[in-house]
Amino acid sequence: MVKEKKCSLGEVHTVTFQVGQKYKGKKEIKDKVNKLATETRRNLGFKKNDKTRLKVVCKGNVPNVNASETLRSKDSDYWYVKTLLYKHTCVQTRKLRACTTKYISTEILDMVESNPTVPLRSIPDQVQKRLQVGVSIHKVQRAKATTTKQVTGDYTKQYMVLKDYLMELQETNVDTTVKLEVVNEPNNARETRQFKRVYICLGALDKGFKAGLRDILGLDVVFMKGPFPGQVLTAVGLDSNNGIYPLAYAIVETENMSSWKWFLECLRYDLELYSNSNFTFMSDRQKGLLPAIAQLYPQAKHRFCLRHIYEKMRKNGKQKSRAGSDILLNNLCEVFNIKLIHGKNKPIISCLEYIRQYLMKRICNVKKVMSKAPGPLTPTSSKLLERNGEASVQYRPRWNGTAKYEVYGPWHDQHVVDMTNMSCTCKRWELNGIPCRHAIATIHEMADSGDKVGELYTYVNKLYWLQTWNEA
Fold this sequence. Notes:
Blueprint: E1 22-23, H1 26-40, E2 44-49, E3 53-58, E4 68-73, E5 79-85, H2 101-107, H3 109-114, H4 123-131, H5 137-152, H6 155-160, H7 162-172, E6 177-182, E7 195-201, H8 203-211, E8 216-223, E9 231-238, E10 244-252, H9 257-271, E11 280-283, H10 289-296, E12 301-303, H11 306-316, H12 331-339, H13 348-372, H14 379-392, E13 396-399, E14 404-408, E15 414-418, E16 423-424, H15 428-432, H16 437-448, H17 466-471
Parallel strand pairs: 8-11, 11-12
Antiparallel strand pairs: 1-5, 2-3, 3-4, 4-5, 6-7, 7-10, 8-9, 9-10, 13-14, 14-15, 15-16
Helix pairs in contact: 2-5, 9-10, 14-16
């Protein structure tokens, strides 16, 4: 380790030269000279540069220049510091030739790694504070582009190894579905193909979604950035705690009926859906999505209009709602898409890896929440049931002699609770699977009358049970 020495101004620098120091090559010496020039804020130049000798002098704006460093090769493999005169009488400057685009890119590497979306205009201020030199916004722009390319990888090269990445993904994740589609090439003799689409559904997420017992998926799209723009299609469900459950994702060339139909066909294979499947999809009005769903799943329910679907469910809600949710907004996809903000500007493999790593981290976080949940219901459903129970004390049920009760409320509202079908005319019990306030009031009335009603949580749909969440 080199011992720190003070320069002629009494400052201690991290970059120092000493007589007898050994270096492997000339490039290592030049990089160290440039770093020293930036650190001391002086323009150091190479007066002599050949195969055996490298002489460095200070080109300050004062004629009396006393700082010089001469380096010469002692043998064919190493370079040694032969003479050293380390004294400056010139004035420090903020305009340094050594502060090149390449040098700045190395200085901001850690900054871009920790925050790839760091605003361009904030970098010059941080560089000036760190190096105390002046840099132009154009030089910083080139430096950030160089650093970003180094951090995220080359966009074109990642397409060349995409197939290898997908094969590795399948080998290391059991039962994972991968679909790669390329542009049709009239010349079959060509060894390369142009990328078109890729679909991924991790096997663990597929099994967990089926174990979660909720037949509802939100569909949405995220626009990618970079030299090869495309769209990320996402399919997100709900878990037993009413949290998002990302299921599958794809990168496609554009958002249209063809790409959505292809994505939905891939989902059909993984979820074992048929044209007459009673499934629920939720989305905004994305281009081509509505006709694609209508073609592939004519019997499926499609939620996309808040006011329309709200009124329709209020009046015509079925007794058994397989979706097990009364959500009317596509927030589950919006939440997932927000997590992809920092991944959509990366090359394709880096983007796919960003999504996969987020899914893995999310599973770990959910498991931590599960381990602390007392049960028997998930934390969110426990709160909803408790809230309905607190509101139920304001309602008075009256038995009609069969399995039905007429429930009166404080605002002269009344509803009919059918305990045989586990339904209420307010439709909330059927829609979200959690007993409404009217049903809970009825259950309490039954218990007071001596009926065996069991514990309250047994009236909650099993998709909200902690056991179901653990299985998912």
